[in-house]
């Protein structure tokens, strides 16, 4: 890729950019922890300074309705003229919590580069991917004195808590954020030698359920065997969430699941799959299990799921405590596919739960974010430009995949009425949301060059389908 | 009870004894927490000083094989002569953990007396019950200059962690501990107006199970739906532990359950039971549920149970974390009745588990104590002496009950080859092992007087059945 726009520039800037990456990763911008709100703000301010330094303008922190100060960052460069397309780059600067901390090989906020990988919380999800977009803009400005498109950045601070105020922000700032095309930098590809791009992301409905079966924990000798047990109740509920074929038992759950488009089916058919490699990348799981009648690639991309992400009740300390637990809870992350609707699925879950919790048991359901599944029109010329940019950098045409993860992309596309392109360099072994998250640096540098190639191609296409 | 041996003495000593109770309860002797070992030792030293001060001799801390320093306390007074029976009083000075701390109305180790109740961790289980035995001995020595029996105290420091080294201690110290009868002060009665005494305690087998389905937590979007989920697996295991009739599904679990003796059946038949009151005492549980075909009184006393005391896996913090948990665990306290055997039941549990955990999943089972169920011969003359002492103090003959709780009483009776009497003043509403544990002070004073009456009657009976 020596002849591409930003190849030489990126080589010359390698040390500076690497240091900039590590600096930003040191900020523990965990949006889920209320006591990290200052760090999320610090991360936003750090990014704002970097955007200004790169040559972007109108840099501004956009507070959200959270009241907790987890701001998004906006910046733009709008000198490409009215006939050039306007491109909005989306990413996020907040990160996931880091527990279990003792499984990290190095501290999550003391980034290191080992074996060509950058290891830190946020390395790939998503600071690393935002940074190569930022540096691509800086590089084009440095090399050519201008950009081929009108460029906007919108980098969120609440993505890891379900982008709870993001749609409101999009609505409030619709004019400033208006764009002809959106580039999302928060996804992955199948393998370095099998480049791919996402054309759909799953939606997400999170629910937190707590039950209380008594005013307080009871002595298991005095009361055990005669009174309800909250820990047992949540176990029964979680166990009942799937049937023997690993199908979700919530009535109506699958009603709106749409069939794949033809290009997606074609990509799925040729997508390489090696079960041993898949299991190895998944941290060495001893076997695979999923919805009966579908393959693992379908399980993680094209099918909806209901994953219990936590279950907690009663005593968990050393030794044993002879109690009947009075309270317990569990959390479920339901991944949705087109055309499932978050509000319908949350309602269906509540109805399912209501059928199963005995009368008299106190039950509280807290929704944790609701994100609709997103779909990109595969036939759009801008999607062809993305394919072309990826081909130029990775040397091979991308396959179209569905990303199993979830994000605010559906809202972006819907509210801003623009197609959403996914340029993402993550790999299956990147341990996203888990200890020892990493980014493969080779993918980072390719991402930087590809971001430049994409802006160049979008600029040459001009405004397509502008209303 | 004004004409009983210790009534007037106890009245005169009321302030001193109350202060002594509060002083001891201030020591957080939680045996389950490794970092509280010093406090358990402090509790032992405090008790040793009190025993010496009361007139007991040969006071000594007995270390156990734990290596953690959770000593038992021994003391004796052996001047009643060779024809007087030797009575060993058993209790324990360690206490349960205190979480959830935020449900306590006052701090667990800052004892208060409110509405005639002493509220603190250990108030009834078991410091309060040890103290009235100690004060009864002091009172008899003060009032009469001697005791009617040869008296020994053995107060354990590891009861709340399953008396893991207690049988070893009994074997090692068999000669010094030898007795004609054992008096256990660690149980309860049905109600202040329905005095009762235990003739059987359930055994206990605790198990801690952890499973690992992957090397680390996985992103629920990338892998969810295709890989095993540790939290779901433990939920399935816990849910499978009982059938629809709330019967334990472990093969062979009920094989050795013996029928009740006639006096026990007779007591059970006349034992008052008010479901509303029972539910209120159980912290206001919304309903009762237990093994099909048996009553609540049978559930908590005469039937074996398998209670999940904790279940933990995945994310439990604020909000949601979109992971597939890699590890999870649960703890089960199985209460055994005569003639179930702990080692058989533990083996049956392991076999049950082995059938249900898929190959490739790492599973670890840690046994947490094993206590056989205990049974007292109801027809023994010493049991009649206990009934008589209770009748003298509470004004009504006691019913015979089976205690749902578990303790080292089976080992005491077996190793020391002596009948075990249960003089206990706990009440169903005492919140044992739970927040806001209490002791009703009226029961404490009655316990003190009854302890004196019992020693007096045992002294008059002489050595019964001595070999």
Question: Main attributes?
Answer:
homodimer, alpha+beta, Aminopeptidase, Alpha-Beta Plaits, 2 domains, six-stranded mixed beta sheet, four-stranded antiparallel beta sheet, 14 helices, 34% helix, 21% strand
Walk me through this protein's architecture.
The structure is a homodimer of 467-residue chains. Chain A has 467 residues and is an alpha+beta fold. Chain A folds into two domains: 7-201 and 373-461, Zn peptidases (Aminopeptidase, 3-Layer(aba) Sandwich); 203-257 and 304-371, Alpha-Beta Plaits (2-Layer Sandwich). Helices cover 34% and strands 21% of the residues of chain A. The first copy, chain A, has 14 helices and 18 strands. Chain A has helices at residues 7-12, 14-25, 37-54, 123-144, 166-172, 174-177, 230-240, 262-270, 275-281, 296-301, 342-356, 381-394, 409-416, 441-461; strands at 57-62, 72-77, 86-92, 112-114, 117-119, 150-156, 181-184, 196-201, 203-212, 218-219, 305-314, 323-324, 327-336, 362-371, 374-375, 399-403, 420-422, 438-440. In chain A, the strands form five sheets. A six-stranded mixed beta sheet of chain A has the order 1-2-6-3-7-17, with helices on both faces. Chain A has a four-stranded antiparallel beta sheet with strand order 11-13-9-14, covered by helices on one side. A three-stranded antiparallel beta sheet of chain A has the order 4-5-18. In chain A, strand 4 and strand 5 (117-119) form a beta hairpin. In chain A, helix 12 (381-394) runs antiparallel to helix 14. The first copy, chain A, is globular, with a radius of gyration of 23 Å. Strand 11 of chain A pairs antiparallel with strand 11 (305-314) of chain B.
